[in-house]
């Protein structure tokens, strides 16, 4: 999760068309990569989808022993998810997942950008602040879940400081607030650091020119900083979106499994597999996968997040064309 | 992937791979209902012992003794995660893929039925264990379908911890035997000036296994059961209503403090240890930290234990603890059986009590004076265990405990009425039973 594709990778300039042999050689050279990809991505995917078409059937014989076998149910598991008796639980989890994702990503984007702006200034102890900001991100989520559980428990610091008796780790809105707080605390630094990286390549002269033109701090931020860090910011937000959609450990550790106000799709999938219903669990995972893919697609299309560096390439090409014209 | 033309052979290759994957999983899915040969436990040689971590090191000591005596039949310890759900999942998965990697399984008493019904573990010979010396409830918890499937390893029962100093100050001499006694005692204690800010009673009411334990205990203590003798769910009864009502009323009138809805074992222990509770239902393991003399416990020397109270008479504890069983796919089952006999034998249980304070399964220990001098709660625990009830003995234990937690939690948080919660629970348990 640390490699961030903000800077374009170095490309060798392509001149003229390739020879026919070149393409074949490229395919040959790349085939081990594709083979590995097929093994580690395609195989589990197909296997999960296949599994999701089965349901474990179990009955008991006269002595009380399980007669088992997997039966092919086609899309039955999916039907069960969307329209079955337990579908309420699915829609609730879908709602929670969406709610957590959008609230926490929105909050951490705002806070992260604010962090970045603060850290981009030259001041004493800047290096220390940067290192300190990274700490929440560096702590494993399960550990920070425990940490926040301790803060939010009935006689914890949160209640002691506020003087209120809020039962954060029981059910309800308070537990959602607890999860979002912990999530934002943990991941705002991630956005902050990516945005900071984006800010540092903005030349100082641009700001000086803006100052001469009489632009205030807010105007500079809106007209210079924000547009120029947009590619980095969008990639950061996309990463966070994808990450938050499969949120599992934080609500699981902080509040506990099967609490309906914080149950996410991942927890639902875990719960099914824990009951040894691998068919239903696979179906949940596939549904989650599709949901994540749809959100990512919409995000990339709507906001034009430059994930693959395609825009960079276009710009280079345009620049090259212009140079050619001048010559 | 931009240049599709050249990746055609690759696609074919991946499709083939995918096809192979389908065939593989297809095979795995269809072929697991052959029953293992269960009658003969044969084969000698190295085996594995698969268990939860043991911080006390006591189990490892026993294994070392065995290994020193049996150079050709070494036991290797495979340690599972601490979380019980993960342990169960790992054990079940290993059984489903029919691996022979696990020989002797350390099972929570509530999993034994599930593992036996799925034939993941094998029955033990009738004469394998000195069952007459064992506490009957522990033998019952290791039995499924009238057959002994596992050896009781250690046992656990509920205790009522009470603040004897405050009770004495309030003029209450006897620990409460019924819920009414408990409330009456609380009324007197909480009127004392030194009991300011305290609450009456707590158990484990967070939505996890502890809630199932506390609820089934309350039902049994009101004279009911969750399942009939032949395994049909039976929770829409006056006894279950009385039990759930006791918990709901407790939360409503403040007998049980509001925050107890977030209590698992440790939070309750902390509250009692900090002197915030008059009574606490918990397991014996907390006895040690409550009596700590290093200043960490505000109640050291000020508390006592008694059996948990019930509706009309003394309550009925839920049975906790662990069993050892032999995996159906294991090799060297003869060694495995012998190891189990050695490991759960009187000598090793006695040696381990010293280190781990896990309650042994032999009744005689609990009356041994040298032992009870050191562990004063043991006689009370024996009383608790003698009429303890196992948690529901059902095959789909995971799903059963989940629906129990859902409905009971809904009732005690006020989302559902007691009647609705029990009626829903009954119908959900019926649909699980199939």
From TrEMBL, chain A:
Annotated segments matching region Disordered: 1-22
One Pfam match: BPD_transp_1
Highest taxon, organism lineage: Bacteria
Keyword RNA-binding listed: no
BP terms from Gene Ontology: transmembrane transport
Keywords: Membrane, Sugar transport, Transmembrane, Transmembrane helix, Transport
Compartment(s) where it occurs, according to its Swiss-Prot or TrEMBL record: Cell membrane; Membrane
GO cellular component: plasma membrane
InterPro entries in UniProt: MetI-like, MetI-like_sf, Sugar_ABC_transporter
Principal subcellular localisation of the protein: membrane
Record-annotated ABC transmembrane type-1 domain positions: 94-299
Ranges that cross the membrane: 26-46, 99-119, 131-151, 184-202, 223-242, 278-300
Membrane topology note: Multi-pass membrane protein
The family this protein is said to belong to: Belongs to the binding-protein-dependent transport system permease family.
PANTHER family reported in the protein's UniProt record: GLUCOSE IMPORT SYSTEM PERMEASE PROTEIN GLCT, TREHALOSE TRANSPORT SYSTEM PERMEASE PROTEIN SUGA
Protein name: Multiple sugar transport system permease protein
Organism placement in taxonomy: Bacteria, Bacillati, Actinomycetota, Actinomycetes, Micrococcales
Automatic annotation (TrEMBL), chain B:
Chain ranges passing through the membrane: none
PROSITE patterns for the chain: PROKAR_LIPOPROTEIN
Signal peptide: 1-28
A Pfam family of this chain: SBP_bac_1
Highest taxon above the source species: Bacteria
Keywords: Signal, Sugar transport, Transport
Homology family: Belongs to the bacterial solute-binding protein 1 family.
Protein name, per record: Multiple sugar transport system substrate-binding protein
Lineage of the organism: Bacteria, Bacillati, Actinomycetota, Actinomycetes, Micrococcales
